[in-house]
Amino acid sequence: MWCLGVGGIDMKQYILDIVHGISSIAKGMWVTFTYLFKPHATVEYPEVNVESMLPPRYRGILQVDMDLCISCLACERACPIECIVIEDVKGDKTFVTSKLTQKPTPKVKYPLRFDIDIAKCMFCGLCVEPCPTGAIHHTRKFEGSVTNVADLTYSYIRDTDIELAEKQVELLANKKEKEQA
Amino acid sequence: MSVQYLADAAYREEVLLFFSRVIPGQVIEAITLFATVAVFFSLMVTPIAAISVYIERRLSAKMQSRIGCNRLGPEGIFQMVADGIKMISKEDFMPQGADAFLFKFAPYLVMVGAFVSFACIPFSKQLLLADINIGVVYLLALSSIVVIGIMLAGWSSNNKWSLLGSLRSAAQIVSYEIPLGMSLLIPVIITGSLNLQEINQFQSGGIHNWLVFYALPFTVPAFVIYFISALAEVNRTPFDLPEAESELVSGFHTEYSGIRWGLFFIGEYHNMFLISCIAVTAFLGGYQKSAANFPFVIVSLFFMFFITFHILTFLPKLGFSLFQGKNILDMLMFHHPKPMRRWLRIVCLILAVVVSILFYINHAHSNMIQVVTFISKAYFLVLFIMWLRWSLPRYRIDQLMDLCWKKLIPISFICLCGVLVWVVLI
Amino acid sequence: MNFETQYINDRQMELNMGPQHPSTHGVLRFIVTTDGELIEKVVPDVGYLHRSIEKIGEKVSYHGFMPYTDRVDYVSAMTANHAYARSIEKMANIEVPKRGHYLRMLADELCRLASHLIAIGTYPMDIGAVTPFVHALREREKINDLLEELCGARLTYNYMRIGGVSFDIPQQFVSKTKVFLQEFAIFLDELDRMLSENTIFIQRVANLAAITTKDAIAYGLVGPNLRATGLHYDLRKDQPYACYNELDFEVPVGKGEQGILGDCYDRFIVRVEEMKQSAKMIRQIIDNLPEGPIIGKAPKTIREKDTSSYASVESSRGELGFFVVANGTANAHRVKIRSGSFAAISMLEKIAQGVFIADLVAIIASLDLVAPEIDR
What we know:
By secondary structure, chain A is an alpha+beta fold.
């Protein structure tokens, strides 16, 4: 337009700018508007049982099945952050059926202390892989907050394990005496 | 009774006469003025701001495919109360080196600018706090007080980021007052009066009388320009640079906490409602009876019934559990939110349609109906503003200025001249 | 916060965009010298997220270092796993079976999608539009769900092992991935409509902080930032690893559509296009997964003597490489990590001159910096 070309304003570009501006804004707003009618993507956590929604491979808080543990210390060696502490004694040989291979595995050492510091654990799963019997495994539990930090060192040893260890140590000592005699 | 007090001048006289036998006249006048203002604000204006906060959270959540706040009370409406209590109970401190008096004074200026502007807006034929003959000029003048408040807030915080935010805001608000004023001049020219009540009366009689359709090629752009300039006046996206969250934390109100920040926050929502009210009064017909009001009235009545039914189904549960001896806070906080049954929603809709038809028929007889019509239309614009906020990025300061001076002002000049010609010739 | 305003040259103001800031991506600090709103100098100050990962590499065994590589770039963790695994396999001459390579590629591309979703989500959020961020996170949650089924974790996967990967794909993984890809295509379309053509977004972002190819190569820039300047350089095509030469995909390059070549808009568009290509690749991978073992033979303790190796992958932010020096013990002697964000943040001083403070935030977001990669 000749009269408005003063000052170098490109009239056509000006109007096109305005039209393009309004149309692009309207397009964007239409997208947001359609979302008003779509269902929400929120999982309402405390009411919904999230643990059942988790896949079977989920790496939650660790759990040790002491009946299966043969105290081979493979998990302690594999842990990159050194949060597993195991103390054991040598005892008489028994057999434990491995959960993974269903075959009997010999057990010569008996754990007296099995602590995992869950505060340090980074849930990497490197301890679960080398376990020959499947004693240490991940659960799907993820709610582990406590009020006292000392409670975060999970101790998996039970009284029955200590009794078993003492009994096996005695049995081994008896066996050795018999062999010497 | 208070509505009648506000509406009916004769009733006011009666009450004054009754009290004047006991208390001297001037004291009564002062008290009644104060009471009128207090009732007006607490009944009509402040709940809207509180509800706006809640609705913004729910609306933005719905647009982002998530649930908003729905835990505290049925559909989360007690969240407003909880927010208010939290704000009041916060520690009151000032940054070191801040100018104490200015720091404390600034929020009040912003609040005053928003609150007092409500005085001249006609909510219905009789419900008008102050019938000012220069209503439009009054409104423009008060927005300048807001500028002073923002600049004081930014400067007195002793914080470079707040200073940047407040300077940006000052430049923005002052520049955008020009297209705002010019586009508000257009209803003035058409109706020939600065009085908002008269501008409203001009638009009575149906949608064809609305000022936005008066001189179509010129008033529709004028309305759009008014809307955009008013958005910039209240620092609302896409013009919320002064409170740009990702750059300046909160801009000029970074250093404020507790109820001081609450005043800024409420002031912003009041401002939003205010500009919608002015837009509806000046362009969209105000409270006048018209068939085009139906969608707005139906939607707002629907939500009103919805919330009422929600509360009604919640109260027996609450009462029962109190009777059993449970703690009321536990009951409120661990309330499991359940969506409302479908048939109840349909009942709400049918009720809303029926009641809105009744409203339409009885429009001229009741102030309440006119107020409901007005507020539902104005609130629709508030929802539109919220929709804009959650869909658009924000402008940079030089682009903002560019938009104002290079695009809005020339177009508003053209609209003004066009309307002048239209009024003279047609 | 400084209590006295510091004036340099009687005109400039020194601002501190500190480590706690709602916009910087991670804990980064910038010391900005401005003249009002115009920036004259930006000095980045890094180190707030240093966790001595490289030092830990000297203390744990080669296998045990794998979870730590997740934390180098926790936004796209699989690529870091991949780079480290490649480096050790190169050093110890360990073969990876074909199915292992394919699963590694699948994990890489899913992570690339996840990382770009964060990049293009936080970018509009820094500019003002909050909604695309939430939508992008919703899509990323779906990817997290998929990867959770695959390996058990949502952020720090520890999926790859030296010699292959740790788990095979579970049942219904293929169908779930296909469902996700369909929803993702819808999301990309919505994103285009909301942002790529939005006039306010384009005005904010175009013609801003253009980087020339010459500068980019001089500073060592890699990844989508480099490709946005117009140079066609992608490790997956130029030095192909892990069966990428069997996949059919294109490498998007910036074209300067809305302004100067190499500006922020190009960086944004390159990432969006890369997401489309990644979706295409994922479809090809899950359609053509070969049979076989997933992990090759790797010794339990790796002991190499007097060797070093460097291997890198094309992570979402460019070339992520691990340089490992071995000295005969069970642990490495030195692990050095080369990341793409480090070069990008060093470019900031050059490109952020004469822009507004609001633009500075946009530039930082467009370079897709993640602090863990910079500080390690």
